[in-house]
Amino acid sequence: EGRSVLELGCGTGELLEALKPSRGVGIDFSGGMLEEARRKFPHLEFRQMDIDTLETWEETFDIIVLSDVIGHLQDIETVLKRIKHFCRPDTRIVISYYNFLWEPVLRLGELLKLKMPQKQQNWLSPEDICNLLFLSGYQTIKAENRLLLPKNVPGLSRLINKYLAFLPGINRLTLCRYIVARPIGQRDGKEYSVSILVPCRNEKGNVEEAVKRIPNFGRHQEILFVEGGSSDGTREEIERVRRQYADRDIRLLIQDGKGKGDAVRKGFAGAKGEVLMILDADLTMPPEDLPKFYRALADDLGEFINGCRLVYPMEKQAMRFLNLLGNKFFSMMFTWILHQRFKDTLCGTKVLFKTDYEKIRAQRHYFGDFDPFGDFDLILGAVRLNLKVVEIPIRYRDRLYGTTNIQRFRHGWLLLKMTLFAFRKIKAV
Questions:
Q1: Domain range for 169
Q2: pLDDT (mean) for 126-133
Q3: In what order do the strands lie in the sheet with 350-353?
Q4: What are the residues whose beta carbons fall under 8 Å from the beta carbon of 58, sequence distance 6 or more?
Q5: How many whole angstroms separate alpha carbon 331 and alpha carbon 328?
Q6: pLDDT tens for residues 244-285?
Q7: Which CATH number goes with the domain that contains 140?
Q8: In the chain, how many domains are there?
Q9: Where is the domain boundary, 148, 183, 218?
Q10: Which pTM was predicted?
Q11: 279, 320: one domain
């Protein structure tokens, strides 16, 4: 809703209208269908042309939709390459198609005149389509299956399609399959300005160490401390370090609310860089690794870069056993719910473009103020925007100063509630 959309194979325009685009353009080869589409939806634009020989014009779109047409194309790779002309780095390609297991049912529906007849098509597997996308210069973001009961049965369809259809095994039997992809190789290799956000409370002994250990990278770099409620002189230490390291762009913001999530939101709102990074003030994630995150984003390997503490061996006191079990459990749940790999949802280091963060902030009303940590606010927002998630393994170190601000069992209960919340808001929709 509110974005520019190009639909290939638009038919009579119902899907394009349902998406409520700020600008909508539909393409189809059938003059009769387009005539009806123009009559019903005069505020949308419809163009008659053959998708296999698609003509281009100078315009880009936020979203390009290929709904149930990819199996009818003569040369899928050529068409996918041609539509890159309409893409920006943030354009999303959405492909929908039928599960080949339903072919006999669909053929029967056509014979009984319950479904519009279609020509013979290529029945492609998800792997086939992902491979064609890769060959055409796209990166698959996620693939999911939906709709187990296509006929509306009051009281039953919603239960089956919203909950039962997602169960392992059963999910492979659903009618509709969807793939979301993005164009790659469209960034020009430029360097970006960077804001490194360091939320801190009672971290006096880590402030100077953070500044000393953060490498210089990016076109310009600012280190942004957000301090709230410290009782050990953290705020005064930040002011001292600012004066001592006057050659570094160091800023201090005072937190009004409470919790890391509030600190992240305040810091990102005041950040001036094009790239936003979070570095936990306990320095258990080595600051020396930050350039890896920057390069992954700047080189277009991903759009939401998340740290992962669960690959390399940890130092003995870096993470307690119950924390480790909790992280693994919630990571498995969120990977299943969000259709992108999340091995470590709670690693504090997260990196994204500020333009993407602003989009997450703009849609925050959909989720509400539910996350005291700040991690899931960003994760769920990024997934809803279909940003490509990439995880970078880090070596998780012992804390050398202070004690953790995490209350394990209370926060564990909050995480369980957020898992159910994410299922309801992302998967079961």
A1: 50-183
A2: 95
A3: 249-254, 220-227, 193-200, 275-278, 350-353, 304-308, 389-393
A4: none
A5: 5
A6: 999 999 999 999 888 888 999 999 999 999 999 999 999 999
A7: 3.40.50.150
A8: 2
A9: 183
A10: 0.88
A11: yes
